[in-house]
Structure formats: structure tokens, C-alpha cells
Amino acid sequence: GTYKVEGITDKLVDFKHIGDSGTYYMSTGNDGDRHHVRIGPESRRNQFSLYRSHEVEVKLNPGLTWDIDIDAGAADIEIDLRPFMIDEVTINGGAASMELILGDRSDNVNVRIETGVSSVLIKVPESVACEVNTESFLVSRELPGFDKVSKSTYVSPNFASAEKNIRIRFESGISSLRVLRY
Question: Does the global pTM surpass 0.85?
């Protein structure tokens, strides 16, 4: 299926499900001053069908600070977090195609992506320093403008002195990773 996180809402979260692969639920809860939102399928399908499809679209409230945790198997994942304050993004995927766009509203953002076979594009703003750590079996890296500081670590030139940082940890089997500055 396709999963999109983009757009804003004045609610805590707004989501819709499009397709014929079953229904999705949204549940919310509190843990002290933290709110939890969980969105997922009502049940697992027992049969694979090429004719079943689904798309989930999620909009978030820009007035909150978010931790995003996505667990998806074979999926197309498109996430645009430019309007939001983000502390952490965690994505676990199997065979996935991902595009993640990060913004500059937060001082420190930690991103952790674990995949099997995937194609991952991450866009980070020029105004925020970035460190990329790749612990992967076979990964094709495209990191223009980054300096290699060790076998698996790359940093933007302004990383040591910047006030705002994005740290990306990427673990995968066989994948391609592109981190582009915009």
C-alpha cells in the first residue's frame, strides 16, 4: 500500500483510508503529558491479492512536537514533515520505497530507518546540519555535500558548530540511500 504523512489539521490527527483491502482504525491515549495516536489495519489479511489496494493519508497538528513511528512491510511511504516540530522519526520497513522530507523547526531530530530491500530518499534543509550513519550490508549511498568521517559516518560541513542538527541512522540489507540538501 501507500502511506502518506503530509498536510496539517487543527485536530490532533486526521486520517483517511482509501482502497479495498479492509478497514483501518485510529486510537488515542494519554501517558502523563504525552498523547499517543495509533493508526493501523483492523485485521491482517490471510490471502494475498493483486487486486487489493490501499492508501492511508495522515495529517498532523503543527502546534505539537511529534515522535513518528512507522512499521510497514512492503509499502510506498511518503512523509513531508516540514511544517512540524519533530523529535524522532523511526521507520521499520521490509521492501519499501520511502521519501522523507524534514524541516528546520526543531533543534535536534533523530531519524532511525531499518529496512530489508529498499530505496530511500531523505531531504534535509541546508540550514540544519546533518550526520548520516549507515550500518548496512549492501547499500548504495548518494550523499552529495557530505564529508566522510569514518567507514559508515558522513557529516555536513557545518555539523560540529551548528545549533540545529539532524542525525540519521540507516540500517538495511540491500538498499539505496540518497540524502539531499534543499
Answer: yes
